C-alpha cells in the first residue's frame, strides 16, 4: 500500500500499524517547501508587474498606458502579450519539464527529482534578479518553470507515499499550504520593495526567491526516500529499513509485502502512459484531468498572479493595490490551514461542494458591483465599495483555499495505482500547467474584453464543476491508496462499470456474441 499508515475502515480494509513519527513530519515539511517556491513565483510576478521601475525597463508601452490619462480603458491598460508572457512562460516551461520529471521520479526517485527542481530554481532566481533585458528575464522564468515541473511532479507523490493513511490528506495539503505561504511572502516582499527608492526594488523581489529555492535544495539532501520508490527500483532491504524508520514500529511486514506486491505489478507495466488509457484506469484519469482544468477555471490563479494589477485596474493606488494583495494572500494561508485540519474529518466532497456555493455567490456579487461602479473611464471605486470588493475577493479566495486549491493536488496523488502513479501524476501536473499557462497568458486580455463579465465567466465554470463533484467525484478520505479500486471505484454508481480488465471485457463480449447479444453494452 502506497500511503502506508493506519486505516479505521470497516469495509474489509487492511490495517497497518503506524505511528506518526518525527521523521515523517520533518520529511514532509522539508519536501513541501517545493510549494513555497511555486507560491512565491505565483505571487511575485503580479507584484513586480505593477511596479513602475520594472515596467519602465521591460515594458515601456504598458508603463505609458498606466500613466497617461484617457490613453486607454481602465480594463485594458495592462493588456500586453509580452507582459503576460513574463508570467506565463514559467508554466509553459513547467509543462515541458513534467515529461522529463516523470522519468526521473520513476527511475531516480522522488528525493533526487526534488533536488533537481531546487537546482533549476536557484539558477532561474539568479538570472531573474540580475536581468538586463527581457530575454534574460524570460530565460530565468523558463528555468524557474523547469523547477516547478520537477517539484510539482515529485512533492505530492512523496507526501502521499510517506504519510500514514489517517493523516495523508493533512500532510499532503502541506504542499498547498506552502504555496499559499509563498504567495503571501511574495506579496509582503513586493509591498516592502515597492517603497525602495532608486528603482531596484523589483530585483530584490525576484532575488528573494532564492530563500525558498535554497530550502527545497537543502531539504532534498536530508529527507529520506519513500519506501515505495526504493522498492520500485529494486532496493528491497533499504525500502524495508526506511519503512521501519518512518512507521516507528518493527511490525511492518504486512505493509512491506503489500508494497512489494504492488511494485511487482507495477514492473509488469512496460508502457505506463499507454496503460493510463486502459478501461480500468480511465476513471482516475478523467477525475484527475477534470480537477486540474476546473481548478484553473475557478479563476484563482488569474486573480493571484495579477492581484495588484487587478486592484490597480479597479482604481486602487499602487501601494493600496499591493496592500490589498497582501490581505488576500493572508486569507489564502489561513483558509488552507482550515483544510489541513478538516480534510480527513469532513472529507473531500463536502469541502468542494460548500466552496462551490461560496465562490459562486462571491463572484456574482463582485461582477454586479463592478458592472455598476467601475466604467472604462472611472478613476476609482469609492472607499466603501472598494473595501467591499476586497472582502468579496477574500471570501472567494478563502473558499478556494480550503477546497479546490489543495484538493486539486491531493485527490489525483492518492487515486492512481502504483503501476501508473508517476505517469498519472505527470499528466496531472501537465494539464494543470497547460491551463495555468492559458489563464496567465489570456487573463489580462480577457479582462480588457469581458470587463466585469470576467467574474461571471468564472462563476459559470464554478457552477459546472460543482455539478461534476456532486455526481462524479467519489469520497477518498481514510482509504489506503492501494485499496482505492476495491473500496472506491468499484462502489461508485458510474465508475464501477469501468473496473473490468480489457481481457475480461473481450471474453464477456465473445460469450455474449455467441448467444446473440452484447452483455457489455452497459459497461
Automatic annotation (TrEMBL):
GO MF term (any one): monosaccharide transmembrane transporter activity
Entry-linked CDD domains: MFS_STP
Designated name of the protein: Major facilitator superfamily (MFS) profile domain-containing protein
Record-annotated membrane-spanning stretches: 20-40, 82-100, 112-131, 137-159, 171-192, 204-224, 285-309, 321-343, 350-372, 384-405, 426-446, 452-473
GO cellular component, one term: membrane
Lineage: Eukaryota, Viridiplantae, Streptophyta, Embryophyta, Tracheophyta
InterPro entries, per database record: MFS_dom, MFS_STP/MST-like_plant, MFS_sugar_transport-like, MFS_trans_sf, STP/PLT_plant, Sugar/inositol_transpt, Sugar_transporter_CS
Species of origin: Solanum pinnatisectum (tansyleaf nightshade)
One Pfam family it belongs to: Sugar_tr
